[in-house]
Amino acid sequence: MRGKQVHRRFGWDTHGLPAELEAMRQLGITTKGQIEAMGIGAFNAKARESVLHYTQEWQDYVTRQARWVDFENDYKTLDVTFMESVIWAFSELYKKGLAYEGFRVLPYCWNDETPLSNHELRMDDDVYRMRQDQSVTVTFPLVGEKAEALGLTAVNALAWTTTPWTLPTNAALAVGPAIEYVVVPAGPAGAANGLEGDSARFLLAADTVASYAKDLGYPDAAAALAAIEPRRFTGAELGGIRYDQLWDYYLDAYGPEAFQLLVADYVATGEGTGIVHQAPAYGEDDQVTSAAAGIPVVLSLDDGGRFLPQVPDVAGLRWDEANKPLVQKLRAEKRLLQVKSYEHSYPHCWRCRNPLIYKAVSSWFVRVPDIKERMGELNQQINWVPENVKDGQFGKWVANARDWSISRNRYWGSPIPVWKSDDDAYPRIDVYGSLAELERDFGMLPRDEKGEPNLHRPYIDELTRPNPDDPTGRSRMRRIEDVLDVWFDSGSMPFAQVHYPFENREWFDGVDGEPGHNPADFIVEYIGQTRGWFYVMHVLATALFDRPAYKNVLSHGIVLGSDGQKMSKSLRNYPDVSEVFDRDGADAMRWFLLSGSVIRGGNLIVTEEGIRQGVREVMLPLWSSYYFFTLYANSADYEAARRTDSSHPLDRYLLAKTRELIQEVTRHLDDFDTPLAAAALRDFAEVLTNWYVRRSRDRFWVGDDRDAFDTLFTVLETYTRLAAPLLPLVTEEIWRGLTGGRSVHLTDWPDPAEFPIDTELVRTMDRVREVASAGLALRKAHGLRVRLPLDSITLTGVHGPDIRPFSDVLCEELNVRRVIFNDSARGEDEDQDNIVSRRLVVNARALGPRLGKDVQTVIRASKAGDWEITGDGSPVVAGFALEPGEYELELTSSDANLAIHFLSGDGYVVLDTVVTPELAAEGLARDVVRAVQQARKDAGLEVSDRIRLTLTGDADAVAAIEAHRELIAAETLATSLVSGEAGGERRRSAMPPP
Fold this sequence. Notes:
four-stranded antiparallel β-sheet; ligase; Ile-tRNA-ligase_type2; ATP-binding; aminoacyl-trna synthetase; Isoleucine--tRNA ligase
């Protein structure tokens, strides 16, 4: 509609653990061993089948929700063209020195037997869940020359850990360099671990002694603090002291540098003892600290998280099952000072929802820290919506970027294109970035059973060749078994979807100075993708192209279930989408999402009432206006024309208002702010239906007012084009009904220059509408139906545009005899001034935090009337200026017959609610008109059909009918009217033609 072509290719994310888990569920298997027993080829065929199983359902769903998507020219991450671009990207990173193999501690899912990237732990809040574990404090007797020199021989260092299962691989203890440590002997009750004599002395941080008083044998914290020995030590002084190892499972494996106190900056005293147990294989900080001291990594668990035979006491047990027997062993050996239940926020696998562990694994990494500065610079070129995400959640994540683990020891995914020599005596590594390179070196391509090139396992694994660096000719080059992290696929999407760089290079990069399609103009996903899709695309775009992956990104909030929790199929806490589509329509759901706070980064609770609200506020008013137009246009047999030159005040107001609407909606959509665009369309629907159409009924009734027909046609046609992106289905139906054209979505976007400018008229009419709305609100609040006429409404202190010329309009809208203008803010009408007063009510809860104890002074002054309104409309109370939200102004009246309503900015409306017998009779007559009109509709009559009308009722009703016979006949198109009491004499008369 704006003259740009948008390629809406549907994309399928097909690889990764979610697809594998679904295949395993369908096959009834649970372990990697079962996968390998059935064969990788058979398993991957099942994974492929599972991800494509719901293809038609997806196509039906997307089409039903009115997404304009090309399914015929879609792309899938399992396509060989996509995968070739992915291995090209890896190859390029390797050439740049940004891809490397390392042995690091990573978040590890023992259930899925694969590591995760750190960013996967930060995508969603529910990755971290509260969990109860055991924390233990264990004794480590200090030994050796340095311990003796410091007088610490046989003193027990108290180390704290929340992972007792890692104690079999204890390699060191860590202390903070500036933390103060003290020695405390066992108290009168004896230490909890049962040690006695000289051996019952304990080393811990001074800040933590009080919390260990009972465990150390003291009656209270004061007694424990008083027992601290005189000499104190900093952590820096304690570095290098040796201790007796806990167990000897891995005594030889750790080497000579193990079992000493290491100094580490990360140690703190907020929890525990200020001395931290170190297991290099199961803690990121542990590994770094231990590696610096020359202590190797030793693994005690297999890939499934179960203990190896080297730890016979718990061999075969899973890590969490081993805690209890290990704690019992500590207690039996008098090494356990304290055991507690420890509740903490703990990471879980976002795919299988099991608790993770940290485990040292061999993995390939991308050196993101090497490019994070450039990533930060390129981030400044991106337009983020909301704007605060740029330097907030995304910017901070980039600034603290860590190496990205990109390899997974799984099966269904793009292969890591690395071949290694199978003989360490002749080391060699080859990395491939294309099918052509593979065919060049291996003399063939990996092909599946159909003979087609296929980069999946096991076909890619079958490519081997002699090692060129081995003169014996015995060793071979074999591919490493790992596949790439599925997030690598996601980050490659911008270029891999078009098989770059093997095809579409000019389309992607541009040519002869003309820009290409990289960066993308616009992408959208939820806020968690700042650490997922947005992030990995930015990493690869920076590393490969030195430019952003996207120009504009809308990072919306999270859509929650009706209970405020994350949507869950098991909880059934959200309305069924198909039912919503069938009952309310896809447009209703689309409007609900695009008009809500979720687009601005807030969370959105999905409720059926919220979805239906858009139907009531926009869709029904729009359809009602369209139906009204077609009803009268067909009745008059009139074919409307597109015109914007009517001079009628209502027409000119609506046309000028439409110009403003075009400008406003265009501006908001250009800013990616669909909630404000939706608000503008919603407000205009109110103007169109409840003001213009209602105020113009008589003009359409006559049937020959070309200006009215043409204006309504023009505005409806324009409105449907403006609303088409947000309401694609209902606007299509209306636009085609209005114009007979092919599709509203193939038209040009409206041009505001086509419509007149009349700022003064718009301001004036908007003020008239506001006054009318206030008057109607007063009627509703006092139970006075609109068909009941009232005497008057008074406008007091209303400034701005002069609305006196529209007094007749207000009389008709509010069904009052007269409109009284009282221009003075305090009232020129002294009688009214005496009965209307304003009262200031202070919101203490809102004002209290700002004023503190002075809020009571303000409250007393407001009650005493010691306040005034300043020139900007805000109140000053006892010298304190109040801000919006800290107060309310209420109008009160001593006359119960007056109803009062504030207007925005200034002034108020006073409605006389007295109902005289004369007014009541006219109101009854208008009720009769309404009843007859409903009867006409129920009888299926056309709007122009004439009727003969007979009315009966009680004496009061008949009197009211007789007093307003001409009104009733004219409104109902009655050619004759007979009235009378039931069973009594009736009065008949012929009526003049309406």
